[in-house]
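Table 4 source record.
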Amino acid sequence: MGTTAVYTLGTSSTNSPPSIRHSGKLIYNGFKRPVIRARHNVTQQDKHSSQTTHFGYETVDEREKAGRVRQVFDSVATKYDVMNDLMSGGLHRLWKIITISRSGAKPGMKVLDIAGGTGDLAKAFSKKVGPSGEVWLTDINNAMLTCGRDRLLNDGTVVKTAQCDAEKLPFPDGYFDIVTVAFGLRNMTHKDGALAEMRRVLKPGGKLMVLEFSKVTPLLAPIYDFYSFQVIPRVGKVVANDSDSYRYLAESIRMHPDQETLKQMMEGVGFDRVHYHNLTGGVVALHIGDKF
């Protein structure tokens, strides 16, 4: 017996995109903003929905986490770029440039940006792959996706958009050359399931790039902890009148797997040649894995 997942897809292009099929069912029919329903078989993760997971430092029912994460990003969506500047001291822009430079993106390639926020990576990839390529900006959160889509439209950048769950991607097997997720994996309930889905939609020879906050060097740890738990929530209160959401984001970083653990998780779902680069003393790490 299956469960039904509902996704809203759209495109900032005036041209109709190609149809995409998943499990033999047409889920994108070329209209500008259709609502589609893709049927998925119940997975082992669905059966374990009564298990617990973490929401920051809290232990919550798995079924509760997605809703609470959605509330956080509903709250910070309009201030997302400011939030990234606060969380990284503005360095996220440099980290994304490094990610793009290591991607090997070329004209004509297909790129999927998961949890794409306000579209920084999607915009950069659009320039790399050109009009013969294809870039999808996706996010599970409608407020975030709307902000990203509108921002790209205002900039004159043409990408396709899809509101979807990274654990149940509505794309066929072997469709993309590159999949990226920046500062989004730590918010996913079943990270291994999401990583497996990312591998599924990659072509043989394709590449996954995970840019995420990680474990800093011991020398930086005291300063980083003070900044994360004392400075960021207070600034979040001033900037967005929401200290709780910013506190959760800081806690979610501490609960995210460290560099070696994430490397092993990627290898565990079948990625090859997995390696990572520590950036800014391990404040973030860029993990890269290939699909052969």
